[in-house]
Specification:
The protein is of the alpha/beta class. Helix 4 (80-110) packs across helix 7. A five-stranded parallel β-sheet has the order 6-5-4-7-8, covered by helices on one side. It is built from eleven helices and eight strands. The model has no long low-confidence stretch (mean pLDDT 96). The longest helix has 31 residues, at 80-110.
């Protein structure tokens, strides 16, 4: 998994040596190789992405490399710390670039520009503007804190703030639909942190539900992966079974299966991932 830099040498190594009475790098070999997988693509990513390996010494790196080369595409780095920072940096790269996309989304709105058209035209081999939206899951929202808690990294910290604040940005979109109506019925489609993954870790839908409730609205939830009972118990939201009864709906994830039902009521939908076009 992903760990703070120094974990292999300063924690794992000490625990293993103390428990075994053996010396790491001499009596046994110790290396760190971060997973570079994605939920739903765990096996294929072993072939698609290089397997980064860094040991506490050269012998550890070489031995781990020999194991992984049997079924993966391993790449050696200088040491375990380097391998640890590689994985942390990958998550931070995504977080910061999504924050950039979120800022550009707001800029496009200010200038009355279609963000998605602009993004499509801007991207090429030297430019990769990410999709804007909410950032959830057990990975991207967490990894930046491994550095934020250790040093002064203002850009990384600000990106976290920008992404976390997007629930407020989308709530204002809901307000534009419902106006000053009190106790509005608001539907949220896409409860998991990402479509196709039944996982609510750091789901921004949970934050949106909480925000809507503090504003006095009645919240209804719907996700193809969650039953009525799970929706009500795990997300503390009423089950959404009639889209037409909602005053506004926010489509949090790229849930394409609801497109045909939402198109006729498009004007009252906040479409985070531009599912409706």
């Amino acid at each position: 998994t992903t760990v703070p830099v120094g974990t292999t040498e300063n924690l794992i190594k000490i625990i293993l040596e103390k428990g075994s009475g053996l010396k790491a790098g001499i009596d046994f070999y110790l290396a760190y190789s971060p997973e570079r997988i994605m939920t739903g693509y765990s096996i294929s990513r072993y072939r698609e992405f290089p397997k980064v390996i860094g040991g506490i010494n050269k012998e550890s790196t070489d031995n781990a490399f020999d194991v992984y080369k049997k079924f993966a595409n391993p790449v050696k780095v200088s040491n375990a710390r380097t391998a640890e920072l590689v994985k942390v940096s990958e998550g931070i790269y995504r977080d910061v670039n999504i924050a950039l996309a979120n800022e550009l989304l707001k800029a496009a709105e200010k200038y009355d520009v279609d963000f998605w058209e602009m993004r499509n035209a801007a991207n090429h081999q030297f430019c990769n503007i990410h999709e804007p939206g909410n950032v959830g899951g057990h990975c991207i929202p967490v990894y930046p804190w491994f550095l934020i808690n250790e040093m002064d990294v203002p850009l990384i910290k600000k990106a976290r703030e920008v992404n976390d604040d997007m629930v407020n940005y989308y709530y204002k979109k809901i307000e534009n639909i419902i106006g000053k109506k009190k106790n509005a019925k608001i539907g949220i489609i896409g409860l998991s942190y990402r479509e196709g993954v039944k996982e609510k870790a750091y789901s921004r839908s949970i934050s949106m539900i909480s925000l809507l409730k503090t504003k006095g609205h009645d919240v209804y939830g719907l996700d193809p992966l969650y039953s009525k009972e799970e929706t009500e118990k795990e997300f503390s939201a009423n089950y959404l079974n009639d889209l037409n009864k909602m005053d506004a709906i926010i489509l949090m994830n790229k849930e394409l299966s609801y497109k045909s039902k939402l198109m006729p009521i498009k004007d009252k939908v906040v479409d985070v991932k531009r599912v409706l076009g």
